[in-house]
Amino acid sequence: MDYRILLYYCYAPISDLEAYRDEHHLFCVENNIRGRIIVSSEGLNGTVSGLKEDCDNYMAYVTSDPRFADTEFKVDIHHEHAFAKIHVRAKEEIVHSGLRHLNPRTKTGKHLEPKEFKALKDEEDVVILDVRSNYEHELGHFKNAIRLDIDNFRDFPEKVKELAHLKNKRVLTYCTGGIKCEKASAFLLEQGFTDVYQLHGGIIKYGMEAGGEDFEGKCYVFDNRLAVDVNTVNPKVISKCFVCGTASDRMVNCANPECNVHVPICPSCGWELEGACSETCKTHPKKRAYTGTGYYQKNTNGYNPYKGLFQKPNAEKIKSALYGKTPS
């Protein structure tokens, strides 16, 4: 089957938040789109999967709304759905940063297309800044990049204090798909950094359009693939097995659901510990059966994609507007 995975975001004001969330959710259900989508008063952020035709319809649906007309989708080919369910949630921010006062539509770092980023990254007085979390950049990062010790993006503003000595440098920020850089680069400018850039489309687009040169390791992604190859020019494994320390970029979830840590574990240790990250987790009574992948599909028993939707007052109006019919 011909499936696609879409990664996208768009900063744009949404005033009818709950109504739009419901409408968006319903469109995904009716078009067999699965994934995780955040709807906020500041815009959209999503990673979804579906058959090519369904994904084409979804992209057309999003961009047909004038608010999201300039949304850019990173499109990858896959052999199946990358998600088991659809979740469309209303939240305060489309990426949790605590920087609600910053609007990337009015002030953010200069966007660099992948080839521009590639040409600039090795010049003098340039520093490359990874704005992702530890578990992401430990799996893969650009050669010579500054990597902050943060567990969540919301920790980024505090860590910027450690970069004060770089305020007169040209700072090139990057992340997975570009969304974190919008706020990160805007915050750097607010803090007095004078020349700030961001990799447009992030690591994913850089791999697609510039061959991923000098991105070492794999890129962590937020779907059931967990990690993807980026570099086709000079690839290099930089991560180490969490258990034995040998080179490994095989990202897994611990088989103990109460641990569920995302770490690299080599095939040998994976089988030895039955998918667990330690002997303690191996003997845990709730440990999941290991099949060699390190990915565990969430239980979908009783899952109803329409749950909570048609009980809402605006549900019939939404479906009627979208499809000219009311829910059965």
UniProtKB/TrEMBL annotation:
SMART domains documented for this protein: RHOD
CDD domains linked to this entry: RHOD_YceA
One example of a Gene Ontology biological process annotation: tRNA modification
Name recorded for this polypeptide: tRNA uridine(34) hydroxylase
One Gene Ontology molecular-function label: oxidoreductase activity, acting on paired donors, with incorporation or reduction of molecular oxygen
Xref: NCBIfam families: PRK00142.1-3 (NF001135)
PANTHER family tied to this protein: RHODANESE-LIKE DOMAIN-CONTAINING PROTEIN 7-RELATED (PTHR43268:SF3), THIOSULFATE SULFURTRANSFERASE/RHODANESE-LIKE DOMAIN-CONTAINING PROTEIN 2 (PTHR43268)
